[in-house]
Task: inverse folding
């Protein structure tokens, strides 16, 4: 006869206090993959000795959530991590204890209580600067022509391992485009969140490939995570 096995302490209800941390990831830390960063943050939380809340069940683990992955190689000062504690502490105390254990390139900017749900994230904004292999003004002219195309199609692999062409043009909002010395400086808004994500690398790769342009240096900074109405998620 099958036994009804239930987790130990399954009836024990531990009070949970939710916090939302805004953090920066830059410098050498920009090259830490999202999965490795999640593991690193778990170790940071454990070393902070905060009374962290663990998930309940057969395999309890530290509760942390990241609503949006940061593309590899991208800097940011607006990243978000949700965590839960078993004691109510001040926001500043949580920020300080976490911040003291962060390595170079990871910085806890602020801590507050969550207001918006992760599903409300719709956009992310980026500043991009790169030095192209051709004169900056010539590259900027080609970029403007690129954004004037009726369609910008990329190949996207489906779950069934087939390849479809997807038009990303309607999803790209260019806030500004200009030259800065030998560099091209772009500001753009791209979709992010549960519905659809568009990586800056995908847009730039499509541009570089179309015109056969290479770049000597490139720097990408995420500047904002936004709601449908443009308001900052944080």
Result:
């Amino acid at each position: 006869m099958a036994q009804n096995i239930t987790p130990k302490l399954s009836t024990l209800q531990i009070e949970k206090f939710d916090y939302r941390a805004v953090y920066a990831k830059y410098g050498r830390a920009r090259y830490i993959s999202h999965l490795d960063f999640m593991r690193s943050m778990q170790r940071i939380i454990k070393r902070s000795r905060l009374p962290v809340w663990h998930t309940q069940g057969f395999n309890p683990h530290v509760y942390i959530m990241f609503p949006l992955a940061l593309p590899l190689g991208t800097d940011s000062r607006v990243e978000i991590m949700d965590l839960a504690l078993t004691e109510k502490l001040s926001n500043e105390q949580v920020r300080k204890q976490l911040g003291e254990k962060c390595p170079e390139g990871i910085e806890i900017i602020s801590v507050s209580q969550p207001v918006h749900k992760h599903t409300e994230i719709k956009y992310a904004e980026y500043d991009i600067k790169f030095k192209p292999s051709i004169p900056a003004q010539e590259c900027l002219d080609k970029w403007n022509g690129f954004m004037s195309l009726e369609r910008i199609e990329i190949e996207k692999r489906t779950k069934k391992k087939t390849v479809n062409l997807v038009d990303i043009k309607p999803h790209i909002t260019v806030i500004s485009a200009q030259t800065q010395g030998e560099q091209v400086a772009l500001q753009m808004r791209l979709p992010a969140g549960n519905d659809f994500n568009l990586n800056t690398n995908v847009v730039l790769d499509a541009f570089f490939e179309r015109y056969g342009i290479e770049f000597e240096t490139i720097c990408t900074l995420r500047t904002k995570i936004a709601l449908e109405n443009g308001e900052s998620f944080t």
